Amino acid sequence: MYISQISVENFRNFKGSNNIVEFNEGVNVIIGHNNSGKSNLLKALDLVLNYGSSKRLSIDDFNKEVSIQELKEKSPKVSITVTFAESANEVEYSEDLITVSTWLTQLKSPYQAQLTYVFYLPEKEEAEYKRTLANIASDDIEQYWLAIKHNFLRKYKSNIYGGNPDFKQVADTESLKKFDFQFLDAIRDVERDLFTGKNTLLREVIDFFMDYEIKSDKTKDKTKQQGEIEQLKKEFSTHASSLIKTLQRRMEHGKKEMLSYANNTGASFGNAEPDFDGHIMDTELYSALRLIVKYQTGISIPATHNGLGYNNLIFMSLLLAKMQKDASGDYLGSNAKVFPILVIEEPEAHLHPAMQYKFLKFIRNNIKDKARQVFVTTHSPNITAAVSLDEIICFHRKNDNTLNVGYLGKAFGDDLKSKAYVQRFLDSTKCDMLFAKGVILVEGITEQLNMSLFAQYEGYDLESSHISVINIAGRYFGHFLKLFDSDNKHTIHKKVACITDLDPVRKENVEDASFEKCYPYELDQDKEKYTYKSCSNDLVGKYSIDPQKKELKGNIACFSQKIGQGKTFEYALAYTNPGCKLIVTESISNSKELSQLIDSYKQGKTLDQMLKLLGKKGKENSRIAESIAQYVGSDNREHLIASRYLNSLQKGENAYELAIALEENYRKKNIENFKVPAYIKDAIAWVCS
């Protein structure tokens, strides 16, 4: 059995009733941007499955995105339904099935069962509720919520129903106690919970694992095990008695002096005098010892002196040990837990990246025997990168604040190739795309390094808009877009702008010829000799603006250069800025020639005059001069500078140098009159809107 899904209605930021989250068996890693609902989901699970937790809610636990009219018509109600499903290899008539047998909603295999938590105003109070709210004459919805808080919240009841909630069959207590729900929130005091001698967790774990070599010896029956343990307890009791007598002898005179004050305070009367007596159990003595960490150097220090991260791992290990103890039928008999659940909120709050990987390994190695399901919420790209796509559940809030849940492993459908590619690609830096509110996918390092600056030049702030720029190092958009395409199931419906190149090509009209790169001004110049493609990128056009509606068809948009003008990003940069020397960085070759071309452009010289400035007559220069001379467009000088600029780049170094130059120019109020290429402006404006 496993928890297959949860449905949350009107709880905190879960608006309305259509909030369903599906879960995997084993590990579930829930990610998403801030306030997407991750912590609230864990609290919803807690309300249903944690028998010992408070079931009362405050007024702020209701989702308040309702109208005044809706509040007047009916009192607000919170409903949370957890669905259990049969596991693939579950034993027939298992203890799991027995536990949920009265909660079944589907009898045939695979069976399903439900638990539903409701927080509601009883029906008999509804008439008074409606009268009270009807008498409020205000357009301020907070006045209505205050009336509910002060007049009706105390009358609200909570119940947990088993099976179909319409039948209102209250789930039996004994079955609810079979769930072991362990919740580690992000703000916790592990020193308080772990290292104090009176701590229940530590003492219970010690009691379970005391004499574990006997308890775990399968060659001995229960009677023999209990006999051996009892004998050890008697031996300890004998030694403990001697120890206590020694302490009493050492306190004999001091005790008299100390307790003499009882006469003065009035504590001694009626011939009754206070005294000391007692015994000590083996587990009590062991739990009183300090937990230490012994290093390889041989130095031992108290565990309280460790960092929070290290102590959190120790605490989790003891918690799993406790879950093992609580699930032991031999130890607890019929009180043993059947379904242990471990819930951890933001483990990265106390763990550095290396510790986060260790934590995940630790969880994986212990989940089968200690916890049936694990739920982890995280903002950590390190944790996200370390788990499989099948384990990741991504929360994303749309502009209207409705919840979109993406299931990364399912988003690819049958396309295992794309799924494997993205799994290998998602490292701790690329995982940013899963947390951001919007994404810009680019082909290379230059676009990645400069996109934030381009946005600033246009009056936008990508960081404030929570837009992530991801370099996919080539034309591999198709693999990643399967995560986001809103036309498909299980995807993340955030805005994704793809900035890509046209890359025009041509091939000779001979047998076995293949397409080769060409310049945009060469297109269709010699159709008898060549076949041309103005764009060799299949992505362009697939996710473009609808020419009829003048709007996008979905949440993905492709932005590229104008056909006949564009080739690559670097080409567009120079084409857009033919009179700006800012783009000519130190590492660029032919910098002197490019500077002369830019100067002559600004001076208004003709194409023929500029062609004379070309450097040594290599094959590529000859091709440029010949082809551009045949070009009839008025932008021939821009094409000339763009061609020479593209052929002079050493992309790696130029990307960093260009970023530095653009940032300095921006600080100086753009004194060089740098212009962002039009298609990049459009992409930034769209993704930030």
TrEMBL record:
One of its GO terms (molecular function) is endonuclease activity. Transmembrane segments: none annotated. Gene3D superfamilies: P-loop containing nucleotide triphosphate hydrolases. InterPro entries: AAA_GajA/Old/RecF-like, Bact_Antivir_Def_Nuclease, P-loop_NTPase, TOPRIM_OLD. Keywords: Endonuclease, Hydrolase, Nuclease. It comes from the Bacteria. Residues 434-503 form the OLD protein-like TOPRIM domain. It holds the Pfam family OLD-like_TOPRIM. The keyword Acetylation does not apply. Residues 1-383 form the Endonuclease GajA/Old nuclease/RecF-like AAA domain. This is ATP-dependent endonuclease. It comes from Paenibacillus chartarius.
